[in-house]
Each structure stands twice: as C-alpha cells, then as structure tokens.
Amino acid sequence: GAGLQAARAIRAFDPGIPIVWGGVHPTILSGQTLEHPMVDAIVRAEGEEAFVEIARRRLEGRDLEGLAAVWGKRPDGSLLRNDMRPNMDMDAIPPLPYRLLQLSRYHDTSEYMPYQITRGCPERCTFCYHQGQERAWSGKQVLAMLVEKHGAPSLPQHERDAMARLFAVIMWGE
Predict the structure, then answer these.
(1) Maximum Cα–Cα distance for the chain, whole Å?
(2) Where are the alpha helices (DSSP H) in 97-138?
(3) CB 152 within 8 A of CB 164
(4) pLDDT digits over 83-101, tens only?
C-alpha cells in the first residue's frame, strides 16, 4: 500500500530515519507489524503523546525503553515491548488547528467538514480491539468550539447548556 511505498522512499532517502507506524493494525498485530523491515517502532492505541515522546527521545539520543504504548527494535535486534498507556482524556486534547491547512486541497469543505468528537465504538464485538471503549469530548466543549468558529447563537445560557447536553446524548446514544 501507500504506507509501505512511503516507508521505502524514506528508507532509500536516509536509512537512519526511524520509521514509526501506528493505528489499528499495529495495535492488534503488534508483533507481526514490528517484524516488517520497513518498521522500526510502533505505537499501540492512541499515539499523540507517545509519538511526541519518541521524537523528544530521538533528539536527546535516548532509546524507547519504558515508553508506554511503544514497541520497537533494539540495536541488538531484540524486540522491545513496553506496557500500554491509559486512554487520553478527550477533553485535554486541543482542537485540531484546521486554520493551518488549505482545506480546499484535501476536501470539498463547501458543504461540510468532518470533525472527530469521539473515539472507539460502543459495541463489544469479540474480534475488535475497541470493545466498548467509546469516549467522547464533552458536549459543552464541542459546542464552545462551534460557537467560537461560527458565532454564538442568540440563545439564553440555559438553552445553550441544554444544547450541550443534547450533543452528549447524540454522541453517546443515551
């Protein structure tokens, strides 16, 4: 796929650049993924915090020992398997800085713009690693972001609070 093509191009450009993979496949099939020659390390489950720490350690000349959620290859060829880290607090994640992108290059944003407000899935399928781990930003935070972007609706505070609760109900299906 495209990911392996990119990894091969990076490896050909500079074999010293570490190639780190993340996502569902490396999370579920961690050992298999790490065995591939185009993979130096993987981040299991959520990767925002772990990836930043990988970059920090790389700049400081430190290894990945003890870095939660990260598996990697040691210089001697043995595999490093660190423990998982707890799920992130969804409300602590800053909003994505869409203003930094020329969105028209990526998506027709004239009608709508996708925006992630949940992670995981509420179902408990035995074959899936999510298994009822749906988490969401609070309705109030999502509403606050929408108001900041599009202006405040001319509603009294108690009605705005009710809308925030409604968003929470819609997201969680409660």
Answers:
(1) 64
(2) none
(3) no
(4) 999 888 877 777 777 778 7
